[in-house]
Automatic annotation (TrEMBL):
Residues 5-144 form the Isochorismatase-like domain. InterPro entries: Isochorismatase-like_dom, Isochorismatase-like_hydrls, Isochorismatase-like_sf. The lineage of its organism: Bacteria, Pseudomonadati, Pseudomonadota, Gammaproteobacteria, Pseudomonadales. This is Isochorismatase. GO terms for molecular function: hydrolase activity. Signal peptide: none annotated. Keywords: Hydrolase. The keyword Electron transport does not apply. Pfam families: Isochorismatase. The keyword Transmembrane does not apply. It comes from Pseudomonas endophytica.
Amino acid sequence: MTLGLVVVDLQNEYLPSGKLPLTGIDAAVANAGQVISHARDTGIPVFHVRHESDENGPIFAKGSTGADIQAAVAPKDDEPVIVKKHINAFRETDLKQQLDAAGVQEIVVIGAMSHMCIDAVVRAAADMGYPVTVLDDACATLDLTFRGVTVPAAQTHAALMAAFEFGYATVRSVDEYLSA
């Protein structure tokens, strides 16, 4: 099966200096960089997804530095950048068409945020019939609060990865993936 790498929303907004800093983002980006390098070296097509809101949006504002993809994982050469306005990278974008045009039959997903955009793209891809692998340590999220209960980022992330393994994806570490 032809593999494709989907890099979701590794944007400046998620850095400690951004408006929505994520727990573990630096480690996730470093790991993502290894995966992207491996993909480039082995001819696996890389698809970058970038979230963008309106120019006056509170985060990912069009034209802002926060909306830019982080330099450490920036697209090179002719790698496509899919700009999305919704959580799901397939919604109202040409991501599926680009994957199909490249002959991609199976995807590897990395990026941010585990509990939102990663969740949405993984479930949508699985529903479309793509076998999906998520590299958990190349993804990041943040603490969540619901009805006065704070769920630490590590637990939020673990719950999502467990749900993926239950029915949507194979979950591997970057080391497991690169050594396979």
